């Protein structure tokens, strides 16, 4: 038997049913005996929604009113009545089992399952299997319109059924017409058999994902705006009614290994993915979630793994994964099992523990634990921030994809962290950085964070012709993001004055921008990390007595990097040779130049960084290849390491640590006594290039 089911919500109708998150307000159904071709009683039931504000389309199509719905029963009571009435009709027809049949998938997948999930009550088993009449019709009549273009009306017209929609109540006509369509499909000419129903997964299945898998980009979405504490089960609940692939939820982590509020979700097919996209800006609790298309490569980058140890750990299916963070480095498996206690037994004992380690085997303080059921996992989460040894331990819900991400991140960490590729100024002539007190520059403050160079040029209008070549300087903050400031070098002080008068508080992308006239010296102070306000100039940290780099200068002569920096500032970070600090005559004028002072590159320590793509031609930024470094600083090479591996790097030292404290720390070990200054404490210039005042290098 089939139970033909039709429903409507208080919002959108037709192809957009359920996309606006509105509640169900109408259910109409009728039992059909496929063998005897008899039907049961047609039932129509109104549903009382929590929000009785009906959309204009709903009022027009259904003819329902808030007053009429106010007297109806809530959804849970209506579903109980549905089960009782269907059972009664089946007995009359001499049948015992049935399957639902609906006009498309939206009513079941996009309305009933999400709404009941939010209202925290369970649907009966019959709602997890149903026939899509549109698909069955297209199978029976292949020459008909595509499934996505089918409606009850188009199917009836294709069969030539002469039903008048205006003669029946809303919902009643739809169910009667669907029954007539089914009987036509069962006629002798077609003899259609309903054999393969659509299914809805009862629960999300966890599992590992290998980087060698092929993931169809048409099945992946990116969800953004998730609460940081949300788990894969929470995300699966948000997409309730849609079939997520096994292990198809991958929570994204930031550079610190913490969740960033995004997740990649992989569905079993493109049809399910398309339905998921319709849940854009639906709510998870009080937060709306953005849903966008993503690619299979993005999913594998987050969820894929290659470690056999991880694959074996995740091979135990239907386990709840808990992440432990902040474990003592000396913690053993026995310590963790003892911390969790007998009230939350770990699946497989020690086999249910996975410690996260660096490539050299050192512990990171993270571990993942498997539990066989939700009850044990909840007991474990109650131990959040309890003490193990002398440290409190954080516990969170986790996912198989998060296990892969964390392991991939730590296992790819080099044993000896290398320094970033050096930033080297390239100085093509004839342009120079503005200096002096001539007020031929303007400062833009309050720019939208999304503003780019094109937006600034459009903002300047006709004055763009008076900007010096490559004279626009975007200013970034410490995180490398736009700070809302920019400096522009004009051809003269008069031009700068006119721009400041004309553009001050002019609008850019719904924000007004302040424009001030300033000098090249003031601009350089801010670009170096100082502040420019009504009270005057506050020097940048590199101008203060505690650091030695001299005043910012126009880079017009070439010099080499200081010896200490040259020895350290290489792609490999640790080199067996150093260079004598002398000018290089071999470097051709068109390639890489090294300024006389290493801290002149807008390298500040607190506030601002200029963005490399828009710096003036006098100071462009490129990553120097090793050949360029060698060509610009060719000199005699003297070994500084008596043997490989004799150089060590210290991190996390107090800022006031001096040479005596370092020597005392290494008391009892033999160190190179000939050059403490060059081999132990980095000079201020080298520290400026490295930007690491807490680091020392020792022999």
From TrEMBL:
GO terms for biological process: mRNA processing; RNA splicing. GO terms for cellular component: nucleus. InterPro entries: ESRP, Nucleotide-bd_a/b_plait_sf, RBD_domain_sf, RNaseH-like_sf, RNaseH_sf, RRM_dom. Residues 320-400 form the RRM domain. PROSITE patterns: RRM. One of its GO terms (molecular function) is RNA binding. The keyword RNA-binding applies. Keywords: mRNA processing, mRNA splicing, Nucleus, Repeat, RNA-binding. It is found in: Nucleus. Its main location: nucleus. Belongs to the ESRP family. This is Epithelial splicing regulatory protein 2. It comes from Leucopsar rothschildi (Bali myna).
């Amino acid at each position: 038997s089939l139970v033909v089911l039709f429903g409507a919500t208080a919002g959108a109708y037709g192809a957009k049913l359920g996309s606006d998150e509105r509640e169900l307000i109408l259910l109409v159904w009728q039992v059909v005996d496929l063998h005897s071709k008899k039907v049961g009683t047609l039932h129509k039931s109104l549903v009382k929604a929590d929000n009785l504000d009906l959309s204009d389309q709903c009022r027009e199509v259904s003819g329902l009113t808030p007053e009429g719905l106010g007297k109806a029963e809530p959804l849970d009571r209506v579903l109980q009545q549905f089960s009782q009435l269907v059972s009664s009709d089946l007995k009359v027809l001499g049948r015992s089992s049935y399957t639902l049949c609906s006009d498309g998938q939206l009513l079941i997948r996009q309305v009933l399952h999400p709404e009941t999930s939010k209202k925290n009550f369970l649907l009966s088993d019959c709602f997890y299997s149903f026939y899509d009449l549109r698909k069955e019709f297209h199978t029976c009549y292949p020459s008909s319109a595509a499934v996505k273009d089918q409606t009850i009306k188009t199917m009836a017209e294709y069969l030539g059924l002469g039903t008048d929609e205006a003669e029946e109540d809303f919902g009643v006509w739809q169910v009667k017409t669907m029954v007539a369509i089914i009987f036509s499909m069962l006629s002798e000419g077609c003899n259609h058999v309903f054999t393969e129903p659509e299914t809805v997964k009862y629960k999300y299945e966890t599992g590992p994902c290998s980087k060698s898998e092929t993931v169809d980009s048409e099945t992946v979405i990116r969800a953004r705006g998730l609460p940081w504490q949300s788990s894969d089960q929470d995300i699966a609940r948000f997409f309730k009614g849609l079939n997520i692939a096994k292990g198809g939820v991958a929570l994204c982590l930031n550079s610190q290994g913490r969740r960033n509020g995004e997740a990649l979700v992989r569905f079993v097919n493109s049809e399910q993915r398309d339905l998921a996209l319709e849940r854009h800006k639906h709510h998870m609790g009080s937060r709306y979630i953005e849903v966008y298309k993503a690619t299979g490569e993005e999913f594998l980058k987050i969820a894929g793994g290659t470690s056999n140890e991880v694959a074996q750990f995740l091979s135990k299916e239907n386990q709840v994964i808990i992440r432990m963070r902040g474990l003592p480095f000396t913690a053993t498996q026995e310590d963790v099992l003892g911390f969790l206690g007998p009230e939350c037994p770990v699946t497989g004992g020690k086999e249910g523990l996975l410690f996260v380690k660096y490539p050299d085997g050192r512990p990171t303080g993270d571990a993942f634990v498997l539990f066989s059921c939700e009850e044990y996992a909840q007991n474990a989460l109650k131990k959040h921030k309890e003490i193990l040894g002398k440290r409190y331990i954080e516990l969170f819900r986790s996912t198989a994809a998060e296990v892969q991400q964390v392991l991939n991140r730590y296992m790819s960490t080099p044993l000896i962290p290398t320094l970033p590729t050096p930033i080297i100024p390239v100085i093509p002539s004839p342009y120079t950085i503005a200096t002096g007190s001539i007020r031929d520059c303007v400062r833009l403050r309050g720019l939208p964070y999304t503003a780019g160079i094109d937006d600034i040029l459009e903002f300047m209008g006709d004055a763009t012709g008076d900007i010096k070549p490559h004279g626009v300087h975007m200013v970034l903050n410490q995180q490398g993001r736009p700070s809302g400031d920019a400096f522009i070098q004009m051809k003269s002080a008069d031009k700068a004055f006119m721009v400041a008068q004309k553009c001050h508080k002019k609008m850019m992308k719904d924000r007004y921008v302040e424009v001030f006239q300033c000098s090249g010296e003031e601009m350089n102070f801010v670009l170096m990390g100082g502040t420019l306000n009504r009270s005057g100039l506050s020097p940048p940290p590199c101008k203060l007595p505690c650091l030695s780099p001299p005043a910012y200068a126009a880079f017009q002569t070439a010099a080499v990097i200081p010896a200490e920096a040259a020895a350290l500032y290489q792609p490999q970070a640790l080199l067996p040779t150093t260079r004598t600090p002398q000018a290089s005559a071999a470097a051709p004028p068109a390639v890489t130049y090294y300024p006389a002072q290493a801290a002149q590159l807008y390298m500040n320590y607190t506030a601002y960084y200029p963005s490399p793509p828009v710096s003036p031609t006098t100071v462009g930024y490129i990553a120097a290849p090793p050949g360029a470094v060698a060509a610009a600083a060719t000199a005699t090479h003297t070994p500084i390491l008596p043997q490989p591996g004799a150089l060590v790097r210290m991190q996390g030292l107090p800022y006031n640590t001096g040479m005596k404290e370092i020597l005392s720390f290494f008391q009892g070990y033999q160190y190179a006594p000939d050059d403490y200054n060059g081999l132990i404490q980095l000079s201020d210039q080298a520290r400026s290039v490295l930007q690491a005042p807490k680091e020392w290098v020792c022999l």
